[in-house]
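Sorry to interrupt, but I need a hand with the structure work. Can you supply me with one protein entry, sequence and fold together? No commentary is needed, just the two lines. Leave the record below and I will have a look.
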Amino acid sequence: MLFNSLEFALFFVIVYCLYIVLRHRWQNRMLLIASLIFYGSWNWKFLSLLLFSVITNFYCSLKIYQTSSNLKQKVFLSIGLCSTLLVLGFFKYFNFFADNIQNLANLLHITIPIYYMDSIILPVGISFYTFQIMSYTMDVYRRTIIPVSHLSDLLLYICFFPQLVAGPIERASHLLPQIMSPRKLNRLGIHQGAYLILWGLFQKSFVADNLAKIVQAQFSSQAPYNGAEVLLALYAFSFQILTDFCGYSDIARGLGKCMGFDIMVNFNIPYFSKNPREFWGSWHISLSNWFKDYVYIPLGGNRLGGIRTYKNLLITMGLAGFWHGSSWLFFLWGIYHGLLLVLHRICNSFFHKSFSGNPIYTNLLWRGVKVVFFFHLVCFGWLFFRAGSAAQVYEMLKAMIYNFDLSLPAIRYESVQLIFYSAPLLFMHIIQKMKNNLMVLFDWPPLIRWLVCLSIFYFLLIWGEFNEKEFIYFQF
């Protein structure tokens, strides 16, 4: 049941009509049933996996909180985390590790019987709800939250349908109090929610799904490539993945606002970042914070000196890349961003000491140069993320160096498409960045606000893709 489908629209209308007439506890019960129906619409069999993980961690968390023995706390923490990770590992990484063991055995001329699970289907949203469940159990262990006493409350926290299958990865300290307490609906929240839903659908159906045609055409073709077409495809993919994922997150936030929930911001204009630290503070914020709090800081963070800090950054980003899928290219993408973070720390220390008093270093033009330069570093990284194989990465890189031809008619046509579909997004992002407000629309006079919303709706209606394409992050 996709957000960009009539089926979901009908589902939400029914849920919302029930929601506004029920009292708090009955709202929660209805939302839990609706969320299970929503997830079950993908594949009812996978509900058992979700319920197994939630129930296991529910009881383990209670035991962690009730016992004063540090050893027992660690035992129950291990049971909760390992049971959840084993489910994720089996469905997402079993064949990957089997294949790599087979390759290693072949390299060493060793015969090992390797079993593959050809019929494995990745349960939708498993990476997201797994991390959300794990954060709950670890926060109980750290004594930063008190575990809930009713299983239904934890189930709703994990299964809440707006953010269940592709995040944001909400923390229990933020979402659970909203579940436990009555929500208040107000006109501003409903208006903001409706706008976020419209803006999210615009990003998905107008920007992402139209740019996907350029991306798919290039990455599904075979070498030799034209470097200019590869670069355009990388630009297109940069905006496709942003608007596809940010579109989902905005729709989730909008659905939540309409029901009185505050779902966290997951993207904050990341392509206007001047460096990797800013980028990871504004791109997939919930995942970035998860890895920072549960991997980077426990490894030692930046408390143990430069070399250890760099190692911790590389480990954290490598795992973050591997989280996206069972491919060494995702791992390399994570390592690439880890190296950018390391280089930024090294260079920032040098330039801050050398040029901190220089007005050129802080002027607007120089900041613009840094934004453009870093955007191209991000685009380069997307090549590892999107390519189907290491061989394709090599051929595309070679084409951008040795075969960069701007004279082809397809270049001009794809350039016009790229500008047409990304320009409205960039225009809005510039305004949001200047005002430092993602909801800047609501600071404008009502007439301007309605004209902007009507324009968004018009572009969406005339040029939007309404073929119910899945969101990119469903595959992760």
